[in-house]
Amino acid sequence: MILATGSRNAGDRAGATTAGLPAVGATTAFTLVEVVIAITVLGILTGIAVPAISGVQRERLAREPVNALLILAREVRLRAMKEQRPYQIIFDSEGFKAARFFQPYGGAEEFETLRVELEEVAREQEIIDASRARGIDLSEGGQAPDLKREEIEKGLQFFESVEFDPSLRVSLKIWDEVDWVDMSGGEFRRWIFQPSGMCEPMRVKVEADDSFFEIEFHPLTADVKSERSWVE
Length: 232
Description:
Blueprint: H1 2-18, H2 32-83, E1 87-91, E2 95-100, H3 108-133, H4 147-156, E3 159-163, E4 169-174, E5 181-182, E6 189-193, E7 202-208, E8 211-217, E9 224-231
Antiparallel strand pairs: 1-2, 1-6, 2-3, 4-5, 4-7, 7-8, 8-9
């Protein structure tokens, strides 16, 4: 009797312990209301995130040529001060190009001529390097190297170019121009950097679909003086 009573009490305690808990192996599920709420919240978050991401991409597209121009302007200014020779960045419908300043009244054809000449110089240098590898030195010898002259000649070979994205509209205001000049209309503009480090005041505006980015360069430092942007 004692053993039977003890077993029954143990069973009662076990039943009391597991009372109110789901059976082992039982699964839980979301109600229809919970699923609808989750889908609604996800839709709201997606509706907020997609336009924001799209706006960031459009602003990045407008910023890219401006950032490239800023980097190039800094390099050109440093070269002008170091070599004590004026440099220039020219703008046309295709993009902008940087090189030493040669002809005050030259046009876009000046850079095409320079590009051809630099390609010829590069081919001549390849011949010299190949001959030197075979033990034949075609370079002029017997004289101490003129480091200043070498620096100037290296500057003469400097040529950088950046192309505009076809989907962008680029406009300029150089010096005292009142109206924006649309570069897609076949215009040609020259931005000069003096050996003193000074350059002409200039503003650049890049427009994409539903966005634009505008920057003003400081005439003393060729750095950013002011900027503003807008994205729909």
